[in-house]
């Protein structure tokens, strides 16, 4: 019986090598779960006007930074000790790249928490929270599915995430137009609405990072770099 994509990275003679690769994948997924929750918590703090929660989220960013350093060291040591080739090297290189994306998602969550704290002190903005909730749900789902695609080595699901990025961009542009129109009608709300616009921008960036992770999943599975490649061309690489 042919090996599935799920175990294509676990068939080495050295059990320790298998364990090293499994640990790298698991540690990456732990970091992914953390930054996903950080983003969700930051958005909730914003909508609830919870300054204490927002401040606590900002403090937790140090954990994300430390996990990034640990994963970079883990990947570097794996290369030095095992000298992986072909698909194994693709996995390690992809993880190094994706760890950077996860750290930046953590940074975006920290930014959202910063504006949540500002709005908790200044008072809720009169508009924009529905759009924030909608786009936040969209991009955190993308991030979750990108992590799942990595876990299952599913390039087909990764391609679906890449397709979603255009929808997020459209939703972000529509939301910013709505807020800009509102600010032009009532200049008293400019400061608070601008905070919401920066939150929307941070969420749009989370979607970009989820897309980057999906591109790296395709690289891991298919051996093709689809960055800066039209979606239609990437679809040909992934296949039906």
From TrEMBL:
Alphabetical UniProt keywords? Cytoplasm, Phosphate transport, Transport
Where does the UniProt entry say this protein principally localizes? cytoplasm
InterPro entries per UniProt = PhoU, PhoU-like_sf, PhoU_dom
PhoU domain ranges (all copies): 29-115, 132-217
Subcellular location(s): the record lists: Cytoplasm
Q: Which family does it belong to?
A: Belongs to the PhoU family.
Q: What is the protein's known function?
A: Plays a role in the regulation of phosphate uptake.
How does it associate, per the subunit comment? Homodimer.
- Could you tell me which NCBIfam families the record lists for this protein? phoU_full
What is the name listed in the Swiss-Prot or TrEMBL entry for this protein? Answer: Phosphate-specific transport system accessory protein PhoU
Q: Which organism is it from?
A: Marinobacter zhanjiangensis
| Lineage, top ranks | Bacteria, Pseudomonadati, Pseudomonadota, Gammaproteobacteria, Pseudomonadales
The gene name on file is phoU
């Amino acid at each position: 019986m042919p090996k599935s994509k799920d175990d294509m990275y676990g068939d080495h003679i050295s059990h320790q090598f298998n364990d090293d690769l499994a640990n790298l994948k698991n540690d990456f997924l732990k970091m992914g779960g953390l930054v996903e929750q950080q983003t969700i918590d930051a958005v909730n703090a914003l909508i609830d006007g919870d300054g204490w929660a927002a401040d606590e989220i900002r403090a937790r960013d140090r954990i994300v930074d430390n996990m990034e350093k640990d994963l970079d060291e883990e990947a570097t040591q794996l290369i030095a000790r095992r000298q992986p080739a072909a698909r194994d090297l693709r996995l390690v290189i992809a993880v190094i790249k994706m760890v950077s994306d996860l750290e930046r998602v953590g940074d975006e969550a920290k930014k959202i928490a910063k504006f949540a704290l500002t709005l908790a002190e200044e008072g809720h903005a009169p508009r924009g929270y529905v759009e924030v909730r909608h786009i936040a749900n969209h991009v955190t789902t993308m991030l979750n599915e990108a992590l799942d695609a990595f876990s299952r080595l599913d390039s087909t699901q990764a391609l679906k995430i890449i397709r979603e990025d255009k929808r997020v961009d459209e939703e972000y542009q529509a939301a910013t137009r709505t807020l800009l129109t509102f600010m032009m009608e009532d200049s008293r709300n400019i400061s608070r609405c601008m905070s919401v616009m920066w939150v929307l921008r941070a969420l749009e960036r989370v979607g970009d990072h989820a897309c980057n992770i999906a591109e790296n999943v395709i690289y891991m599975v298919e051996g093709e770099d689809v960055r800066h490649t039209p979606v239609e061309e990437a679809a040909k690489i992934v296949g039906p």
